[in-house]
What does this fold into?
Amino acid sequence: MANLTVHHIPVCPFCQRLEILLSLKGRRSDVDFRVVDVTRPRPDWLLKMTRGSTALPILETAEGRVLKESLVILQYLEDLYPERAVAQRDPYRRAVENMMTRMEGDFCAAGYGYVMNQSLERRDELREGMLKQYARLNDFLVEHAPSGPFLWEEFGWAETVFTPFFMRFWFLEYYEDFELPLEDRYARVRTWRDACLSHPAAQQVTKEQIVKLYYDYAKGAGNGALLPGRSRSSFVFEPDWRVRPWPPKNKYDRSATDDELGL
Ligand SMILES: N[C@@H](CCC(=O)N[C@@H](CS)C(=O)NCC(=O)O)C(=O)O
It folds into this structure.
């Protein structure tokens, strides 16, 4: 029986990091993943456990100890199950992947700021900001791993950290027509991203699922918040995303109704 529990939102990128790490270690079934519905207020037992914070994932041990923050939980799982190392053990290599890990916050913020934007005037500026992030990653990879495809020999720590965002950014392709240009300055990061996206340990979500669930983000409402005129969030579990139609692509045009979204 699992003696670790992760409370998570299935489509959350931070939670997916944990699933990827555990899959790489062949330990996915050692942890009991329990689903929290982000469209409803957090239950009292969960708020008690987190001392009032609402962000997920959180990890609970059999003794009732609680850990927060995906990168902290990743390291805990890495230390707990060291036998199939995902993090580099060589100090220099570990430092390099830690430097790359430190770039995830700006990368994530650029992508979410872009998808949530509602102003046509800001689109170019936000696209440039996103491209700058990709160029930064490209430059890092050219310096530390010119031949690739991964930072080191295999899909490892940096890939576990970034792949969930490469997947979430499918919402930029759909709602912003954002594509990484076919230019040299993005060539190395493109190879990295594509190798990350197709890795077998990282197939917990699909493009269709991301595009459908994140419709409300594209209209400026995050974390299960309700948009004006709507009675259901695009993050609800029922109806299942598979039976819903693809949302309208033009987010700047108008807002889709619950009906149009199959909610
Ligand atoms: N820095 C945190 C971020 C976690 C986070 O923002 N999770 C989102 C889901 S993707 C969440 O729980 N949002 C709802 C909330 O904060 O109440 C981590 O790495 O674990």
